[in-house]
Design a protein that fits this description.
With 440 residues, the protein is mainly alpha-helical. The chain is built from 17 helices and 6 strands. The strands form 3 sheets. Strands 1-2 form a two-stranded antiparallel ribbon. Strands 3-6 form a two-stranded antiparallel ribbon. It is globular.
């Protein structure tokens, strides 16, 4: 099977068919590169928890952010992950809740312009909201006030397009050949523009930190009680000589890209599931209105967010059907033995294709293999931002469902047409209609 000269939908369907194999281990080819594949939870657990399988394959290097946490080689990744883990502790994540609240309010206000009107493509709105969240919690930047920050997403989209074109054409993966093409010059110009923006962010962050240190005696002011954002953590590591310039750059880009496109795309899928399954949407709304009464101002705490159990189940069921990274790739550092195991027909049961958040009731989770659900990878090299994403998406869900009902002409999640680029996405986004909720 070749992915060249295929439409985006054909590429997705080709990959799906090639990898939809019930064998515990099977071989596939990515151009000239052999892949050993599995969808068996026991095999996946053994691979992803093995210290010998923390390396990412070399074609991740095509992203050219090789010192970022997402694609760094194993030795760099181990050092960075240990240093960055404190940046994602629970106290820091809970400190971001007011930022999530503020940006989700902005999203609801924007969407209110379209309530009871024409259909809209919702994912763009969701992605813009998550970009605002991530920029605020990562680089302390309000993209609504900085016109240059707004183009960050555009630059990343362009680089992603260049990378995808190379992945789909083995000749372009040869650097000496790629340098002869016009795309190389265009990509380099885009990366230079991105570099200039990020380095401006570094300069601003250093200046702000110096200002805080100079006026440390006013530490009781609200400005100095703000949560320590990601770039503050990086600057501390830089001062301790644990990170160098290129690691600083690659990790800022990685965190913004990983945090924006992923959560934004997930929330786009969530909105479609809410619209397609109105009876489930009502269950989510009833839970939200029970925790956050409609006649009171919203006030988020870690405790009341933790009460949104069915809301979280709905998000997880969406991720089960639409995993952003349907494939995880590892390159073993040494030989690893994968035992022969018996694979059941389907680990999710006879109704695996049905959309049902009840799949995530605690009693069902207890009887399911822990590696049967991996929306944010798993094992040793799992996603550092999983809890961040879940908190921010819950806050968005509260604001969205307290203000709107979502409606769609589609009858089933199978009616959505998909494509696979670097993430699983909709190839054509059907419109969603918003109906304003009447508040008591």
């Amino acid at each position: 099977m070749t992915l060249l000269w295929k439409t985006e939908e054909e590429r997705f369907r080709g990959l799906f068919n090639a990898l939809n194999n019930s064998a515990k281990l099977f071989k596939a080819w990515l151009f000239h590169i052999p892949l050993i594949c599995t969808s068996d939870p026991d095999m996946i657990q053994k691979i992803l928890t093995s210290p010998q399988c923390v390396q990412k394959p070399h074609f991740y290097d095509i992203l050219k952010f090789e010192f970022g946490l997402l694609v760094a080689h194993s030795d760099v990744w181990k050092r960075q992950r240990k240093a960055l883990n404190p940046s994602f502790n629970q106290k820091i994540l809970h400190g971001f809740i007011p930022i999530f609240d503020r940006t989700a309010q902005t999203l609801a206000k924007k969407l209110s312009q379209y309530a009871d009107g024409e259909k809209i493509q919702i994912t763009d709105f969701m992605t813009r909201c998550t970009l605002e969240m991530v920029c605020a919690t990562t680089i302390d930047c309000n993209i609504n006030e900085d016109p240059e920050a707004d183009k960050f997403s555009h630059l990343i989209d362009k680089i992603t397009e260049f990378v995808l074109n190379k992945l789909l054409n083995p000749l372009l993966c040869v650097e000496s050949i790629y340098r002869l093409t016009k795309h190389y010059k265009m990509e380099e110009a885009t990366r230079t523009e991105l570099s200039q923006f990020v380095h401006k962010v570094f300069r601003n962050a250093k200046a702000q930190r110096a200002k805080r240190e100079t006026f440390s005696e006013t530490a009781n002011d609200e400005d100095y009680r703000k949560p320590k954002i990601f770039i503050d953590q990086l600057l501390d590591l830089y001062d301790q000589k644990l990170f160098n310039d290129i690691e600083m750059f690659d990790n800022v880009v990685t965190m913004i890209v990983a945090g924006t496109d992923t959560s934004g795309t997930v929330m786009g899928f969530v909105a479609h599931m809410l619209a397609i399954y109105p009876h489930l949407q009502e269950k989510v709304y009833q839970e939200i209105s029970g925790v956050f009464p409609a006649n009171k101002n919203l006030h988020f705490t870690p405790e009341n967010l933790s009460q949104l159990q069915y809301t979280e189940m709905f998000i997880k069921e969406t991720l089960r059907h639409f995993p952003l990274g349907p494939m995880f790739l590892r390159a073993p550092l040494s030989d690893i033995e994968l035992d022969e195991v018996q694979v059941p027909a389907d680990i999710w049961g006879p109704e695996a294709e049905e959309f049902n958040p009840d799949n995530f009731f605690p009693e069902r989770i207890e009887n399911r293999h822990p590696f049967a659900f991996l929306p944010f990878s798993g094992g040793i090299r799992n996603c550092i931002g999983y809890r961040y994403a879940m908190i921010s998406m819950k806050v968005m869900m509260v604001h969205l469902l307290t203000n709107f009902r979502f409606k769609s002409d589609l009858m089933s999640r199978k009616d959505l047409r998909l494509k696979y680029s670097l993430l699983l996405k909709l190839s054509e986004e059907p419109g969603i209609k918003l109906e304003r909720r009447l508040k008591a």
